[in-house]
Amino acid sequence: MVEAELPTVSSFERCRNETIGRKTLGQILEAGRRAPSPGRVQSAEFIVIESDKRKKVSELAGDGRLEQAPTLVAVVVDRERLERNLGSGAGRFAEGEAAVAVQNMRVAAERHGISSLWVGGFDRGRIGKALKGPEGREVAAAVGFAYPDGPVEQEPKVAMNDVVSYDFYHHQIVSPIAGVEGEG
Questions:
Q1: Centroid of chain to Cα 3
Q2: pLDDT (tens digit, 9 = 90+) per residue, 66-112?
Q3: SS in 3 state form for 145-179?
Q4: What pTM did the predictor assign?
């Protein structure tokens, strides 16, 4: 496999104030909608924010870079729906469902030359209220989508043998996936 075939995503530091076309945005959202879902429940929903509401979401999420992006997408999850369909305790799967949807959207955006910024770990209740989310649902993630203003530097990745073990923890072997990163 050639490294260029691997999907990559980039997080912008600065971006252009250029609107993302509806067809392109639709393809990005479709990638999120098609993400795997626990038990095929599909509890994730999306709120597209292109108004001055971006400033409020950016403040509540604690990352000023979100405000720069012309398009934000809030990923809303329904823990109760997961519980109803999959049983007690299934609400914990909401985080994973949101994460997979976000990653799918980020990969789709990158194919259009659009960079993204994934933010989580904020006060979900406050963002949910600001976006008039219904009771029982919560905003699990906010993602800014934008055309980057200049090249986006990729952070160096950890060597393959530093993150992959065989049969038991920290047991590396020489293998084709070790590549040029060396032997463990």
A1: 21
A2: 999 999 999 999 888 888 888 888 788 888 999 999 999 999 999 99
A3: EECECCCCCCCCCCCHHHHCCCCCCCCCCCCHHHH
A4: 0.84
Distance CA 31, CA 106 (A): 9
Q: What is the pLDDT of residues 16-63, one digit of tens each?
A: 999 999 999 999 999 999 999 888 888 899 999 999 999 999 999 999
The answer to whether 20 touches 114, Cβ cutoff 8 Å, is yes
Residue among 73, 77, 61 at smallest CA distance from 108:
73
- β-partners of residue 143 are 73, 118
Nearest to 74 by CA among 39, 118, 36: 118
CA 137 remoteness from chain centre: 18
Burial readout 34-73 (b: 16 or more C-beta within 10 A, e: otherwise): ebebbeebbbbbebebeeeebebbbbbbebebbbbbbbbb
Asked if residues 95 and 51 have their Cβ atoms less than 8 Å apart, the reply is no
Q: What is the pLDDT of residues 83-94, one digit of tens each?
A: 888 888 878 888
Q: What percent of the residues of the chain are helix, what percent strand, and what percent coil, each to the nearest 5?
A: 40, 15, 40
Give, for 86, the enclosing helix (H) or strand (E). Answer: helix 79-86
- Judge residue 99's burial from the number of C-beta atoms within 10 Å of its C-beta, 0-12 exposed, 13-18 middle, 19 or more buried: middle
